[in-house]
Amino acid sequence: MVTLELKSVEACYGRKAVFAAATTPEIRGGSLTALIGPNAAGKSTLFRRIAGQLRGAGQVRLRGAEPAALRYMPQDTAMTAALTVYEAVILAVKQGQAGWQLSARDLAAVDAVLARLKIGALAELHLAELSGGQRQLVSIAQTLVTRPAVLLMDEPTSALDLYRQYEVLDLLRDYAAETGAVAVLALHDLNQVMRSCATTIAVANGRVEAVGPSREVLTPTLIRRLYGIDARIEACSRGYPMMIVDGPGRA
Ligand SMILES: Nc1ncnc2c1ncn2[C@@H]1O[C@H](COP(=O)(O)OP(=O)(O)OP(=O)(O)O)[C@@H](O)[C@H]1O
What we know:
By secondary structure, the chain is an alpha/beta fold. It has two domains: 1-65 and 149-217, Rossmann fold; 78-147, no CATH class. The protein is 32% helix and 29% strand. It has helices at 43-50, 85-94, 104-116, 132-144, 162-179, 190-196, 214-217, 220-227; strands at residues 3-7, 9-13, 16-22, 27-28, 32-36, 59-63, 70-73, 150-154, 182-186, 197-204, 207-213, 229-235, 241-248. The strands form four sheets. The chain has a six-stranded mixed sheet with strand order 7-8-9-5-10-11, with helices on both faces. Strands 4-1-6 form a three-stranded antiparallel sheet, with no helix packed on it. Strands 2-3 form a two-stranded antiparallel sheet. Strand 8 (150-154), helix 5 and strand 9 (182-186) form a beta-alpha-beta unit. Bound molecules: adenosine-5'-triphosphate (ATP). InterPro entries: AAA+_ATPase, ABC_transporter-like_ATP-bd, ABC_transporter-like_CS, P-loop_NTPase. This is ABC transporter ATP-binding protein.
């Protein structure tokens, strides 16, 4: 079982502290965890701190996996446009590996991830030729190809059409269930969170405001506190909880 836990974690840029002491209970692998909060709340900053790109006091405790088995997919992925899709995913396989030789296993992993994301037909295209959504799917392929034990994905569905958003979330949920990976996704769509993510971490104003099962955390009270929005939680025709937005909260 892979788990991730934050103990009084500080995350700052120079003297500007975004989090002074973020603490969570153990986040267990095997299902998706949402990281939610308003713009500039610190979601990307917390990912960078967990991924080791920012330093600070406190402890990021990873159990059941090595730090090298963590992959962070930033919101804006810089891609070298001269590469083809296939080459870009190969490059992701070789990251952290010694040497440039490709094994049959590496090639099979690339083929498998492209097939799973249904982008095999794009393999020979250059990244510059892709649409925004296609580029996001390639980033997801690069993130998943090494089968990481910990995934931190910053708004992984933001450029995808509605069908693809749900397809990718289902794929990530299946991946976490199959591998036992801890998978934390920063998401803005709370309906997607309620449908796909077992656990939710809510952040705002440099604090972890709530952590727990999504259905318990995502209450109208919390939504109003985080976003200033009046909302109700009802059930859709398939029984999933749905947030109905009534509008900005009245003073
Ligand atoms: N490189 C940086 N240097 C200094 N401050 C930064 C830097 N990156 C982000 N910040 C600041 O840190 C705070 C948190 O930003 P962050 O990008 O983590 O928010 P977020 O929750 O991911 O927002 P969004 O939902 O808009 O993507 C903001 O006040 C932002 O201005």
